[in-house]
Amino acid sequence: MSTLAILTALALQTTTAADPASAEAVAVKAPVNATFAALAARDGALLAPHFDPEARMLVALERPDGTRAVRRLTGAEFAGGLRPGPETYQEVMPDPVIVIDGDVASVFGRYVFKVDGAIVHCGANHFDMVRRDGAWTIAGITWSQRTTRCEGSR
Predict the structure, then answer these.
(1) Running DSSP on this structure, what letter comes out for residue 21?
(2) Cβ neighbour number for residue 43 with a 10 Å cutoff
(3) What is the pLDDT of residues 41-90, one digit of tens each?
(4) Would you call 119 helix, strand, or coil by DSSP?
(5) Could you tell me which residues come within 8 angstroms of residue 137 by beta carbon, excluding any fewer than 6 positions away?
(6) Which residue, 118, 114, 46, 120, is CA-closest to 78?
(7) Cα 13 to the chain's mean position, in Å?
(8) How many CA atoms lie within 13 A of 87 on its CB side?
(9) Over the stretch 84-107, which tens digit does the pLDDT of each residue have?
(10) pLDDT tens digits for 115-132?
């Protein structure tokens, strides 16, 4: 088991999920919601205020043919992938679990990604959050991405 997995397991054992309606949970989730708004606007520049300057992304892809790959991105690469276009993007993350411990937090849950209202992929998101100077920012995002078994995620 990796060190990160062990630390995550320990953190989850010693902390509890925050009440999603609490002011602190709402503050933690604000950069997540801003990320979804940037996706909908297809504007990577909207991400900058919500991302730590050294933010890193990791996506675990499961392709329709069953092959898998892991891809790493910097925050700049992630933002650079958002370009204007005619399609409407929408990411929905119902019922995320928010765990807060001091100046670190995580937001975890299933998601669906839609283009023009149709689900094109789904999976689980994990946002690593850090509070600096009183503001929550995204230190990293890890997500799985697949095009199958998305029906129950609506």
Answers:
(1) T
(2) 14
(3) 999 999 999 999 999 999 999 998 989 999 999 989 999 989 999 999 99
(4) strand
(5) 31, 50, 51, 52, 55, 129, 130, 131
(6) 46
(7) 22
(8) 13
(9) 999 999 999 999 999 999 999 999
(10) 999 999 999 999 999 999
Show the CA angle centred on residue 86, arms to residues 82 and 87, nearest 5°. 75
**Separation between Cα atoms, residue 62 and residue 144, nearest integer Å:** 8
Tokens of 98: 């928010």
Distance CA 37, CA 51 (A): 14
In the block, residue with structure tokens 């504007």: 43
Nearest alpha-carbon partner for 146 in 66, 39, 30, 35: 66
Backbone torsions φ then ψ of 82, nearest 5 degrees:
-90, 110
Sign of CA dihedral 39, 62, 93, 57: negative
With a CB cutoff of 8 Å and minimum separation 6, the contacts of 134 are none
